Amino acid sequence: MNFSSSPVVSLRDVAIYQDVNTVLSSVNFDIEKGEFVYLVGRTGSGKSSLLKTLYGDLPLLVGQGAVAEFNLGKLPRKQVPYLRRKVGIIFQDFQLLFDRSVAENLAFVLRATGWRDKSKRKQRISEVLMRVGLDAAANKMPHQLSGGEQQRVVVARALLNEPVILFADEPTGNLDPLVADEIMQLFQEINNQGTAVLMATHNYEIINRYPRRVLKCEKGHVLDSNVQEFSLISGYQAS
Ligand SMILES: Nc1ncnc2c1ncn2[C@@H]1O[C@H](COP(=O)(O)OP(=O)(O)OP(=O)(O)O)[C@@H](O)[C@H]1O
């Protein structure tokens, strides 16, 4: 059987819920291996809810969905950690453990995902830190790093288990424009090496500088720039 052509994300007639409220309906799109896709839409339009459904934080109750060959509609809670090993998740607020070093933050995740061999953990930690340009930071505490460096550690953490896709929710939201651009370049490098990326953002400057396919949450639906033209800005209230 050849799985190589199956998309990393596939949604058919999906509805996204928060509690009993429908946030998005009739959601249909695929994300192919190695694709880079932005997710936009005004505040409250459903971007985070969609991402949460894709990484198993919200249940898929209506429609069919698959991520990294996990069937979201039939995903027992027990299976969620296995899905999480196939995807990398990056939030706006860094969520590092501030009472331990960078290396210990990464080792914590490796231990929790079944890496029993200490020397292999050490090797993997140095590989991912090298990949995000932070090879000298292993023994630093998070508070000794800048915001951009902390976000790089979060990216390194998301890469530990070689995910097929990164889900990033406003990864540059708390960073100044120059640092945001550096993080964006890092995402591009990671993407160029074959990892798909789905990135929710309000940063239209970044989208204009690095144009890619865009999914837009609007009026309870998801528009897809591969299917129809739409304005990035409409319905968005700049602050
Ligand atoms: N935990 C929750 N419980 C109930 N409703 C929620 C919850 N989180 C979000 N919602 C509601 O779901 C809808 C979509 O919110 P969501 O956070 O997905 O939007 P968003 O596009 O990610 O917004 P933002 O750009 O501000 O992050 C909103 O109406 C919001 O109020």
Automatic annotation (TrEMBL):
- Keyword field: ATP-binding, Nucleotide-binding
Q: Which Gene3D superfamilies match?
A: P-loop containing nucleotide triphosphate hydrolases (3.40.50.300)
SMART domains listed in its UniProt record: AAA
> One GO CC annotation, please?
plasma membrane
Q: Indicate the segments forming the ABC transporter domain, all copies.
A: 9-238
Specify the superkingdom: Bacteria
Cited InterPro entries: AAA+_ATPase, ABC_transporter-like_ATP-bd, ABC_transporter-like_CS, ABC_transpr_LolD-like, P-loop_NTPase
MF (Gene Ontology)? ATP binding; ATP hydrolysis activity; transmembrane transporter activity
Q: Which PANTHER family does the record match to this protein? A: CELL DIVISION ATP-BINDING PROTEIN FTSE, IMPORT ATP-BINDING PROTEIN
Family, according to the entry, reads as follows: Belongs to the ABC transporter superfamily.
Function comment: Part of the ABC transporter FtsEX involved in cellular division. Important for assembly or stability of the septal ring.
Q: What is this protein called?
A: Cell division ATP-binding protein FtsE
Instruction: Please name the source species.
Output: Pontibacter actiniarum
